[in-house]
Design a protein that fits this description.
Chain lengths: 113, 112
């Protein structure tokens, strides 16, 4: 158990819908990172928050947004969902702003039908 | 998105054999990471490398940061069935970004 909690574990939704994925970082970690992993692909970095502020953006679509709350948990919002958005979405957390020692959650498997 | 070239894509080996895999990039990186991902789980960091030429071990695993800073290698000695999984490399460019670029993974299957 990495200490990073992601909910829900599985999510099935229809095209055009909006979903929210939640991540609770390890106790004491200030950074949260979101990644997308499509079938048989590596991880694509989406976005990084540090202590409530956005620090870096990767290949995140405009239909996607994220935020980190004062209690440091983070949410990833995916809207106007398309079939191609089906993927595993991982959250990772680290103590500092450098994610070299980041710990990953178990992921949320999103299926868009 | 940008990805590293990781090879081989998959490999079957006999238990007890040594395994080698590598990652190459057209860009210079200042950090290389190696992760293992088991089915249904998130990636787990195995080894982190910070300097060109650095050789670091973690049990039966040894990784090296290539001299050119454009590649990295992971070796697993005397493989065992629980080594099964997907191994990912990740690199961080020298541009000061905290974004890591991940390889496409090497899927390892160990035959008992």
């Amino acid at each position: 158990d990495s200490g990073v909690t992601q909910t829900p574990k599985h999510l099935i939704t229809a095209t055009g819908q909006r979903v929210t994925l939640r991540c609770s970082p390890r106790s004491g970690d200030l950074s949260v990172y979101w990644y997308q992993q499509s079938l048989d692909q590596g991880l694509q970095f989406l976005i990084h928050y540090y202590n409530g502020e956005e620090r870096a953006k990767g290949n995140i679509l405009e239909r996607f947004s994220a935020q980190q709350f004062p209690d440091l948990h983070s949410e990833l919002n995916l809207s106007s969902l398309e079939l191609g958005d089906s993927a595993l979405y991982f959250c990772a957390s680290s103590v500092g702003a450098d994610n070299t020692e980041a710990f990953f959650g178990q992921g949320t498997r999103l299926t868009v039908v | 998105g940008q990805q590293l070239n990781q090879s081989p894509q998959s490999m079957f080996i006999q238990e007890g054999e040594d395994v080698s895999m590598n990652c190459t990039s057209s860009s210079i990186f200042n950090t290389w990471l190696w992760y293992k991902q088991d089915p249904g789980e998130g990636p787990v960091l195995l080894i982190a490398l910070y300097k060109a030429g650095e050789l670091t071990s973690n049990g039966r695993l040894t990784a090296q940061f290539g001299i050119t800073r454009k590649d990295s290698f992971l070796n697993i000695s005397a493989s065992i069935p629980s080594d099964v999984g997907i191994y990912f490399c990740a690199g961080r460019p020298t541009s000061g970004t905290y974004k890591y670029i991940f390889g496409t993974g090497t899927r390892l299957k160990v035959l008992a």
